[in-house]
Request: fold
Amino acid sequence: MIATAKLRFARREHLGLAAAEFATLARLASPAKIQSFLNAIPANHEQDGETIHSVRAVLAHRCAHCVEGALVAACALWVHGEPPLVMHLDCDPVDYPHVVALFRRGERWGAISKTNGALLRYRDPVYRSLRELAMSYFHEYCDRHGRKTLRSYSAAFDLRRLPAALWVTNDAPCTEAHDRLAGLRHYALVSRRETLRLSRRDAFERRMAAIVEYPRPGFVMAAATGDVPRGDPRRLGRRTGARRR
Reply:
């Protein structure tokens, strides 16, 4: 296995990818192009059971939920000489965590995010700290009842700390990589007292949050109630969520 912890540019032989797989990542030469690629592939609704696809598996299946999209985004950044950084966003147990890939322009942070709705997507590199970036997701991060559920964020995690075989070419679920992210030290965004004072999103906001780009096959959106559809990729299986807690 080739040591990758200090490599600035990820080469094909370092990642273990086939030529066509690597060429796909090589074409994603900017954060905006990476985000457009993730937007263009359908949401992974995990219809055959819970998944944590590796980069290779996402490229093969052409679908992803948030963790899987973050792995692809981080790998593409690494191919172009940027560190493969990700951040884990954790929430109240009633909701589902989220993962984004991070990049910097000068001293400012931005994020690449795979999500089926419109509200938790790309963030331009204008944020002075990871806390500021995480807070940009706070208002829109809610459960189906309109409760704001985002609670904490992790430090940036460099995926070069893990063997590429665990998250780039793994044919099995990337459980170990996922658990490393979920187990990172997290920093609170709101106190318990502040949580008690949070307002709920109104009915109009909940209806807007219920709109998804890739509806689950056979699913009819409950727009009248504003329920967040199960197709929202933040809804990573609670078995996974329970394991990270």
Remarks:
- The two ends are 31 Å apart (CA to CA).
- The longest strand covers residues 98-105.
